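Figure 2 data, in text form.
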Amino acid sequence: MTETKAVLKNFDLAPRKARLVADLIRGLTVNEALAQLEMNALRGTDPIRKLIYSAVSNAKNSKLDENKLFIKTIFVDKSIMLKRYLPRAQGRATPIQKKRSHITIVLGEKDSAKPRFSFHRVGKKIKQSPVKEAKQKEKPKDTSEQKSKEEKTTGATPRRRIFRRKAI
Protein backbone atom coordinates (compact mmCIF):
# COMPACT_ATOMS: atom_id res chain seq x y z
CA MET A 1 0.00 0.00 0.00
CA THR A 2 1.40 3.35 -0.97
CA GLU A 3 0.90 6.55 0.97
CA THR A 4 1.53 10.27 0.74
CA LYS A 5 1.95 12.89 3.39
CA ALA A 6 1.33 16.60 3.93
CA VAL A 7 2.30 18.69 6.95
CA LEU A 8 1.06 22.05 8.20
CA LYS A 9 3.46 23.61 10.68
CA ASN A 10 2.89 26.36 13.24
CA PHE A 11 -0.82 26.68 12.64
CA ASP A 12 -2.24 29.35 14.93
CA LEU A 13 -4.78 27.18 16.75
CA ALA A 14 -4.54 25.27 20.00
CA PRO A 15 -3.88 21.54 19.48
CA ARG A 16 -6.89 20.63 21.59
CA LYS A 17 -9.19 22.50 19.19
CA ALA A 18 -7.47 21.17 16.08
CA ARG A 19 -7.83 17.59 17.35
CA LEU A 20 -11.61 18.00 17.39
CA VAL A 21 -11.54 18.50 13.62
CA ALA A 22 -8.96 15.73 13.10
CA ASP A 23 -11.13 13.22 14.96
CA LEU A 24 -14.05 13.97 12.63
CA ILE A 25 -12.26 12.88 9.47
CA ARG A 26 -9.92 10.13 10.63
CA GLY A 27 -10.41 6.99 8.51
CA LEU A 28 -12.78 8.56 5.98
CA THR A 29 -12.24 8.64 2.24
CA VAL A 30 -11.01 11.95 0.86
CA ASN A 31 -14.39 12.86 -0.66
CA GLU A 32 -16.25 12.11 2.57
CA ALA A 33 -13.72 14.06 4.62
CA LEU A 34 -13.97 17.10 2.36
CA ALA A 35 -17.77 17.00 2.56
CA GLN A 36 -17.59 16.71 6.34
CA LEU A 37 -15.24 19.69 6.58
CA GLU A 38 -17.34 21.74 4.16
CA MET A 39 -20.39 21.46 6.41
CA ASN A 40 -18.61 22.02 9.72
CA ALA A 41 -18.29 25.43 11.37
CA LEU A 42 -15.21 24.82 13.52
CA ARG A 43 -12.31 27.21 13.00
CA GLY A 44 -9.74 24.56 12.05
CA THR A 45 -11.72 23.14 9.13
CA ASP A 46 -10.46 25.49 6.38
CA PRO A 47 -6.71 24.92 6.90
CA ILE A 48 -7.22 21.17 7.27
CA ARG A 49 -9.27 21.11 4.08
CA LYS A 50 -6.46 22.92 2.26
CA LEU A 51 -4.01 20.43 3.75
CA ILE A 52 -6.07 17.55 2.36
CA TYR A 53 -5.99 19.17 -1.09
CA SER A 54 -2.22 19.46 -0.75
CA ALA A 55 -1.94 15.79 0.20
CA VAL A 56 -4.13 14.79 -2.76
CA SER A 57 -1.90 16.85 -5.04
CA ASN A 58 1.13 15.04 -3.62
CA ALA A 59 -0.64 11.75 -4.32
CA LYS A 60 -1.28 12.76 -7.94
CA ASN A 61 2.42 13.56 -8.33
CA SER A 62 3.17 10.08 -6.99
CA LYS A 63 0.79 8.64 -9.62
CA LEU A 64 -1.83 7.39 -7.15
CA ASP A 65 -5.52 7.12 -8.00
CA GLU A 66 -7.30 9.95 -6.20
CA ASN A 67 -10.62 8.07 -6.08
CA LYS A 68 -9.07 5.35 -3.90
CA LEU A 69 -7.46 7.68 -1.34
CA PHE A 70 -8.47 7.69 2.30
CA ILE A 71 -7.13 9.40 5.41
CA LYS A 72 -4.90 6.76 6.92
CA THR A 73 -3.63 8.83 9.81
CA ILE A 74 -4.05 12.39 10.94
CA PHE A 75 -2.48 13.72 14.08
CA VAL A 76 -1.97 17.06 15.75
CA ASP A 77 1.16 17.88 17.76
CA LYS A 78 1.82 20.97 19.78
CA SER A 79 4.21 23.51 18.37
CA ILE A 80 6.03 26.49 19.83
CA MET A 81 4.09 28.61 22.25
CA LEU A 82 4.17 32.38 22.01
CA LYS A 83 4.46 33.85 25.49
CA ARG A 84 2.99 37.28 26.00
CA TYR A 85 2.05 39.35 29.03
CA LEU A 86 -1.04 41.39 29.75
CA PRO A 87 -0.62 44.40 32.05
CA ARG A 88 -2.84 44.28 35.12
CA ALA A 89 -3.56 46.45 38.12
CA GLN A 90 -0.88 47.58 40.59
CA GLY A 91 2.01 46.90 38.23
CA ARG A 92 1.36 43.20 37.86
CA ALA A 93 1.39 41.22 34.61
CA THR A 94 -0.64 38.16 33.62
CA PRO A 95 1.01 35.61 31.30
CA ILE A 96 -0.74 34.72 28.05
CA GLN A 97 0.19 31.53 26.18
CA LYS A 98 -0.71 31.54 22.50
CA LYS A 99 -0.64 27.89 21.53
CA ARG A 100 0.13 26.63 18.03
CA SER A 101 0.01 23.22 16.44
CA HIS A 102 1.59 21.01 13.77
CA ILE A 103 -0.93 18.99 11.71
CA THR A 104 0.16 15.93 9.73
CA ILE A 105 -2.03 14.00 7.30
CA VAL A 106 -1.06 10.67 5.73
CA LEU A 107 -3.23 9.46 2.85
CA GLY A 108 -3.32 5.80 1.94
CA GLU A 109 -4.71 4.02 -1.09
CA LYS A 110 -7.40 1.35 -0.66
CA ASP A 111 -7.52 -1.46 -3.18
CA SER A 112 -11.31 -1.72 -3.23
CA ALA A 113 -12.52 1.79 -2.54
CA LYS A 114 -15.90 2.61 -3.99
CA PRO A 115 -16.66 6.33 -3.72
CA ARG A 116 -20.17 7.07 -2.45
CA PHE A 117 -20.15 10.43 -4.21
CA SER A 118 -17.75 12.81 -5.88
CA PHE A 119 -16.72 16.20 -4.56
CA HIS A 120 -15.43 18.70 -7.09
CA ARG A 121 -14.10 22.06 -6.04
CA VAL A 122 -14.61 24.90 -8.47
CA GLY A 123 -13.31 28.08 -6.91
CA LYS A 124 -15.48 28.56 -3.84
CA LYS A 125 -18.58 26.95 -5.32
CA ILE A 126 -19.39 23.26 -5.39
CA LYS A 127 -20.23 21.93 -8.83
CA GLN A 128 -23.42 19.87 -8.89
CA SER A 129 -23.60 16.53 -10.59
CA PRO A 130 -25.33 16.37 -14.01
CA VAL A 131 -28.16 14.28 -12.51
CA LYS A 132 -29.12 17.05 -10.06
CA GLU A 133 -28.96 19.68 -12.78
CA ALA A 134 -31.31 17.60 -14.97
CA LYS A 135 -33.81 17.22 -12.09
CA GLN A 136 -33.81 20.95 -11.51
CA LYS A 137 -34.54 21.60 -15.18
CA GLU A 138 -37.51 19.18 -15.15
CA LYS A 139 -39.40 21.09 -12.43
CA PRO A 140 -42.23 23.20 -13.83
CA LYS A 141 -41.67 26.89 -13.22
CA ASP A 142 -44.49 29.27 -12.36
CA THR A 143 -45.06 31.88 -14.99
CA SER A 144 -45.63 35.50 -14.17
CA GLU A 145 -49.22 35.20 -15.46
CA GLN A 146 -50.07 32.53 -12.89
CA LYS A 147 -48.61 34.64 -10.09
CA SER A 148 -50.49 37.76 -11.16
CA LYS A 149 -53.79 35.78 -11.31
CA GLU A 150 -53.21 34.52 -7.75
CA GLU A 151 -52.51 38.03 -6.53
CA LYS A 152 -55.64 39.38 -8.18
CA THR A 153 -57.92 36.69 -6.72
CA THR A 154 -56.55 36.78 -3.18
CA GLY A 155 -55.74 40.47 -3.04
CA ALA A 156 -52.23 39.86 -1.70
CA THR A 157 -49.39 37.45 -2.02
CA PRO A 158 -49.34 34.54 0.46
CA ARG A 159 -46.42 36.10 2.36
CA ARG A 160 -48.27 39.39 2.78
CA ARG A 161 -51.37 37.60 4.01
CA ILE A 162 -49.43 35.95 6.82
CA PHE A 163 -47.52 39.03 7.95
CA ARG A 164 -50.08 41.81 7.58
CA ARG A 165 -50.84 43.81 10.71
CA LYS A 166 -54.55 44.47 10.42
CA ALA A 167 -57.25 42.03 9.49
CA ILE A 168 -59.37 43.14 6.56
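Caption note: Residues 3-128 form a domain with the Ribosomal Protein L22; Chain A fold (CATH 3.90.470.10).
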